[in-house]
Design the sequence.
C-alpha cells in the first residue's frame, strides 16, 4: 500500500471531513475519495461513514484500528528520515514525549532545558494528557517516550526504562489554619488527616481510599483533581490539605509545607517508558543517555537492550 494513501486517510480523519482534508492537503476531493475507496477495497470493509445531512465523518471500528496503525506506520517513515538526518548531523532531531499533566513543567525545567542547552538544534513535541491518552499516544507512534506518574494500564506493551521513587505526602499552606491542632514534626497520622478537608490527585485518591479503609477510617474528601497541580492549589489557598505524590528530595514551594504519612506505605514510582519492541530514534537514545547522567533514577532497562 502506498504510504501516501495512509497519510491522506489520516488527513481525512483529523480534518473531520473530506472537504476540509481536500483543502488542507491540496488534493482534489474526487481523487481523495478514490484513495479512500482503494483503502476500503484493500481491507475489505468500510472505514468511514458519512451520515446523511452531516458534513462530519464517523470512523467505523475498522477505521479506528487503521487510524492508529496508519499513525504508527507513517511515524516509522518520519523516524527513518529523522535518523538518516541524524547520521549527517547527530545533534538534530525531534524528541516526541508524552507527559503527565502534573509533571510536564518539572520535566521541562529539570531535563529538557539543560538538554536543549547542550543540543540547541533539537526540537520538542510534548503531548500532555491522562494515562489513557498517554498510552494511546505511545502505541500510535505519536510519541516515543512516556513520562508517567501513575502505574501503566497495559503493562505488557511497554518497557520501563527508568523509575524514580515517590511517596504520598500531605501538603499544607505554610501558615495553614489546619496545622494548629496537628502534631509538630514532619509526619502526620491517618487519624489526624481524617479530620481535615482533603484534596486528592486522582491516582492518590484510589490508593489512599484503600489505606484509610484498612485502618477503619473515612477521609473527609473536599476535592478529587485530575492533576497534582490542581490539588496543590487548594492547599496553596488554604482551603484544604493536598494529598499528592512527591519525590523524597523534590523541592517544595516556599509557601507550602510537606508532611510524610508513615501509614501510607506504597510502591509508587514515576517512570520513563517506551513501547516494547519498537526502536527509538537516535535523538531519543541520546536524551536517555543524558537523562541517566543528570537524574538519580533507577535504570530498569539496559541501554544495549533498547
Sequence:
Amino acid at each position: 500500500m502506498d504510504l501516501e494513501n495512509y497519510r491522506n486517510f489520516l488527513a481525512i480523519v483529523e480534518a473531520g471531513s473530506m472537504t476540509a482534508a481536500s483543502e488542507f492537503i491540496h488534493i482534489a476531493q474526487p481523487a481523495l475519495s478514490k484513495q479512500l475507496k482503494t483503502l476500503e477495497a484493500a481491507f475489505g470493509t468500510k472505514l468511514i461513514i458519512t451520515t446523511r445531512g452531516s458534513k462530519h465523518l464517523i470512523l467505523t471500528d475498522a477505521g479506528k484500528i487503521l487510524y492508529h496503525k496508519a499513525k504508527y506506520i507513517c511515524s516509522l517513515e518520519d523516524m527513518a528520515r529523522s535518523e538518516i538526518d541524524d547520521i549527517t548531523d547527530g545533534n538534530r532531531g525531534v524528541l516526541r514525549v508524552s507527559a503527565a499533566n502534573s509533571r510536564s513543567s518539572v520535566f521541562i525545567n529539570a531535563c529538557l532545558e539543560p538538554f536543549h542547552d547542550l543540543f540547541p538544534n533539537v526540537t520538542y513535541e510534548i503531548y500532555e494528557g491522562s494515562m489513557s491518552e498517554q498510552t494511546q499516544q505511545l502505541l500510535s507512534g505519536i510519541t516515543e517516550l512516556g513520562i508517567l506518574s501513575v502505574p501503566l494500564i497495559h503493562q505488557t506493551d511497554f518497557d520501563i526504562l527508568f523509575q524514580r521513587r515517590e511517596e504520598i505526602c500531605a501538603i499544607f499552606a505554610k501558615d495553614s489554619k489546619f496545622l494548629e491542632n496537628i502534631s509538630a514534626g514532619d509526619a502526620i497520622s491517618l487519624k489526624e488527616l481524617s479530620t481535615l478537608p482533603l484534596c486528592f490527585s486522582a491516582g492518590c485518591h484510589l490508593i489512599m481510599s484503600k489505606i484509610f479503609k484498612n485502618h477503619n477510617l473515612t477521609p473527609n474528601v473536599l476535592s478529587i483533581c485530575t492533576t497534582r497541580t490542581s490539588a496543590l492549589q487548594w492547599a496553596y489557598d488554604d482551603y484544604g490539605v493536598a494529598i499528592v505524590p512527591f519525590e523524597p528530595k523534590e523541592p517544595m514551594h516556599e509557601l507550602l509545607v510537606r508532611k510524610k504519612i508513615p501509614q501510607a506505605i506504597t510502591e509508587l514510582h514515576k517512570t520513563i517508558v517506551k513501547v516494547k519492541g519498537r526502536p527509538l530514534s537516535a535523538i531519543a537514545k541520546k536524551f536517555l543517555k543524558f537523562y541517566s547522567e543528570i537524574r538519580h533514577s533507577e535504570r530498569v532497562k539496559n541501554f544495549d537492550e533498547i
Remarks:
- The mean pLDDT is 85.
